[in-house]
Automatic annotation (TrEMBL):
This is Ankyrin. Gene3D superfamilies: Ankyrin repeat-containing domain, P-loop containing nucleotide triphosphate hydrolases. Keywords: ANK repeat, Repeat. It comes from Lepraria neglecta. PROSITE patterns: ANK_REP_REGION, ANK_REPEAT. Residues 209-356 form the Nephrocystin 3-like N-terminal domain. Residues 466-547 form the GPI inositol-deacylase winged helix domain. ANK repeats lie at residues 675-707. SMART domains: ANK (SM00248). PANTHER family: AMELOGENIN, NACHT DOMAIN-CONTAINING PROTEIN. SUPFAM superfamilies: Ankyrin repeat (SSF48403).
Length: 760
């Protein structure tokens, strides 16, 4: 049986022939109009019950069927017309042609009728099939809906069971969390020192194998066994901190085998000074942290009683205090440690202290049972140098691969530093900056000897850079050395991006942090634990403090100008903007601009201060942080509002006594009518006794009453207005009392139920 595709191909060919014949007829010359028109279509009504496939089979019979006859007629006509295409005139043999055309028209009509009829049948069949499919789909939808309902009911049942289980788990976790939260609340009140972060940072910089021999010394072994005080002393930067971190790690390893052993440590720092109370609190917290439960009474006790309570939960306690010489109040800390030994009862307490050698006050007070001199041995220093050389990101790979040349670099550095380990970081820049062996060898031959000489050499290297790099390096050092506290990386970034006269901050001026160390010849490091910029060691701080006039003569003036320029920027026109910028340079600039003005103590710095004081928005910006930090309820209610602040108020609070003569004090010095109160109280609250004296000498009234709304701000007075003498008495400021009495303050004053006699 002929397939449908073959039949369709035959019909297509037949129609092509017909089109060709008609086109030939239309090209005949002088053809009558009735022959130029399409041949009339015959319409025949046929009702056929044959399916469409049978119709095509009949039409497509091989040589005798209608398709074949139609094709034969068309081909004959085409051949006939093709021979005489260019000379044909009308009429030609009309009888033969008429018969041929009639036959063709009849055959065409049969095809058209057959195809039309089959199209109708096909559409009907499709409609029937579509209805059957629709019915089937409806049935499936009903079945699926029933299945979904069954699944949903099962899911709801399982979910309810799961939810019930989850609630039980949450209740259990909540119980644990509540206990943990209470424990952390108690511990958080003891101290806020990030000991673990400091220890992890120091331990990460310790070369493998460094200091191991110190753990095997007679003094160390004796201290581990006997509850005594061991003092480890050495010259500056002789790896005392490395030893302390090593001992802490060793003791923590012992805790895994003996849970009755408690270990706690302190890393003292002159750049991050802490009170003795906080340091002792850090020890208590480290001892309490591993315990599952801690006594509730711990938070109500003083530091020594709390230590006595917590130490009673251990059979042995090991305490390590590193760099005692850098403690802000080292003698007080030593006395507290000795008191712990007296209170120790049944608990054995071992104390290890590292410090410099030349601390006679510590030596007299501490009276250590054991003493160990720390000398950086060649092997330890060599390991340290090798690790830093190989970890240095700018040292070429060919130096590290040449082990002989690497050893010669280390030998040259060892010969000039006399056991001072950390100073070798300065020398690591030589192989990083010089591209040839010959150049490195020459540089090593001229290495300076001693601490100060190394710093001077580093300063020379900073100045020998390209002018812009040298300028940036000195600016970074100025901020790191002369800032009143350690600065974050972001604070220094913003400080260096500010130029005199800037009305807003240009973020395109921010420096790329990785470049800082090279700009400063490795005199600074980025402290990863706090994201701080610091000098590598306190000896560098001492060097620059002693050499500040020669090396950084305008540092305070430049820092003051940057702070004041920042506070006067357009971005600080609303409280929201100030609050948003609080994590950038704002905190430092608002609280310390006055310090740098006073340290600079020259006409330019004072002129800069006057520019800020004459700028109403600048004054409000500078005062906003003071208001936020005030404990007064009066000021707390005004946070977020623009504060009306006169120049004399800020001058009084910050103690800028040299500016008093440049201000108009005729109407302001005793004016307590506005919401900021009388200037004399700002001097008292800023603890500026010298400023108080200057104000009194310029006519400030020692008996001036401050206005009612400001009665209890910062003084704790629950009454209404207060007098300066009562305020100074409540603050315990004896010096201020003397100045006030000298200038006529009355001792018979009474306010809010308080009198001078009742307060004394």
């Amino acid at each position: 049986m002929t397939d449908p595709l073959t039949m369709l191909e035959g019909i297509s060919a037949m129609l092509d022939i017909r089109s060709h014949v008609v086109s030939l007829i239309r090209t005949a010359k002088f053809a009558a109009s009735d022959r130029q028109k399409p041949i009339a279509e015959d319409s025949v009504e046929i009702n056929s019950a044959e399916p469409w496939e049978l119709t095509f089979q009949v039409l497509n019979q091989d040589d005798t069927g209608p398709r074949a006859q139609f094709e034969q007629s068309l081909r004959y006509l085409g051949a006939k017309l093709g021979k005489e295409r260019f000379s044909l005139t009308w009429p030609f043999t009309k009888e033969g042609l008429q018969e041929m055309l009639t036959s063709i028209e009849r055959q065409k009509s049969m095809f058209a009728i057959a195809l039309t009829n089959d199209s109708i049948r096909l559409s009907a069949a499709i409609t029937v099939q579509a209805e059957e499919i629709t019915k089937g789909v409806d049935v499936r939808i009903v079945e699926i809906t029933k299945s979904v309902d069954i699944i949903r009911h099962a899911h709801e049942s399982h979910f309810q069971a799961f939810e019930s289980s989850c609630l039980e788990v949450v209740d259990h976790i909540h119980g644990l969390s509540e206990g943990t939260r209470k424990k952390r609340e108690i511990l958080s009140r003891l101290m806020s020192i990030a000991f673990e972060a400091t220890h992890a940072d120091i331990a990460s910089r310790r070369a493998n194998g460094t200091g191991e021999r110190l753990l095997e010394t007679r003094e160390m072994l004796c201290w581990l066994k006997t509850p005594e005080i061991l003092r480890c002393q050495g010259i500056p930067v002789s790896a005392k901190t490395i030893l302390a971190s090593l001992v802490i790690d060793k003791l923590r390893g012992m805790v895994k085998e003996d849970l009755n052993l408690g270990v706690a440590g302190i890393y003292c720092s002159c750049k991050e000074p802490e009170t003795t109370s906080n340091l002792i609190g850090s020890l208590i917290r480290q001892l309490a942290e591993p315990l599952e439960t801690i006594p509730r009474s711990l938070e109500a006790l003083n530091r020594l009683d709390a230590f006595h309570t917590i130490s009673g939960l251990y059979s042995k306690i090991m305490i390590i205090v590193d760099t005692l010489d850098e403690c802000a109040d080292r003698l007080d800390l030593v006395k507290q440690l000795l008191t712990m030994l007296i209170m120790k009862s049944a608990t054995k307490i071992h104390i290890l202290v590292t410090s410099r050698k030349d601390l006679t006050d510590v030596e007299r007070t501490l009276k250590a049972d054991l003493q160990l001199d720390i000398i950086s041995r060649e092997r330890d220093v060599r390991l340290f140098l090798q690790q830093n050389l190989r970890d240095h990101e700018r040292v070429s790979g060919w130096i590290i691969r040449d082990t002989v040349f690497e050893a010669s670099i280390i030998d040259a550095i060892l010969g000039r530093l006399y056991g001072i380990i950390l100073l070798t970081l300065l020398c690591m820049e030589l192989p990083a900056d010089i591209p040839t062996k010959r150049g490195i060898r020459k540089a090593l031959e001229t290495l300076p000897v001693g601490t100060d000489d190394n710093y001077k050499e580093a300063w020379v290297r900073i100045g020998s850079q390209k002018s812009q790099q040298a300028k940036i390096g000195k600016q970074i050092l100025a901020w790191v050395v002369h800032a009143t506290r350690p600065l974050t990386v972001q604070e220094v970034q913003y400080a260096l991006a500010i130029e005199p006269g800037d009305e807003d901050l240009d973020l395109e001026g921010l420096l790329n942090v990785p470049d800082w160390t090279s700009f400063c010849a490795v005199l600074i490091v980025i402290d990863g634990k706090h994201d701080l910029n610091t000098l590598v060691h306190p000896t560098r701080q001492e060097f620059f403090q002693n050499q500040k006039e020669a090396l950084l003569p305008t540092a305070h003036e430049d820092i003051a100008e940057t702070c004041i320029t920042y506070l006067r920027m357009k971005r600080f026109r609303s409280y929201e903007a100030i609050h948003f910028q609080a994590d950038l340079l704002f905190n430092y600039a608002a609280l310390h601009w006055d310090y740098h003005v006073c340290c600079a103590d020259n006409d330019k710095a004072l002129s800069l201060a006057l520019q800020l004081l004459d700028d109403e928005n600048g004054r409000s910006t500078a005062a906003q942080l003071l208001i936020e930090r005030s404990p007064s309820i009066y000021w707390k209610q005004r946070i977020g509002r623009k504060v009306s602040m006169k120049p004399v108020h800020l001058v009084a609070y910050f103690g800028l006594s040299r500016l008093v003569g440049r201000l108009d004090l005729n109407t302001d010095i005793n004016d307590g009518s506005d919401k900021t109160g009388s200037p004399i109280y700002w001097a008292l609250e800023g603890n500026q006794n010298q400023m108080l004296k200057v104000l009194l000498e310029h006519g400030a009234d020692a008996n001036a009453l401050r206005f009612q709304a400001y009665a209890d701000a910062r003084s704790g007075d629950s009454g209404y207005n207060s007098y300066p003498l009562i305020t100074a008495t409540k603050m315990g400021n004896i010096t201020a009392l003397g100045y006030l009495l000298q200038h006529g303050a009355s001792v018979d004053q009474s306010r809010g139920g308080s009198t001078i006699s009742s307060l004394l």
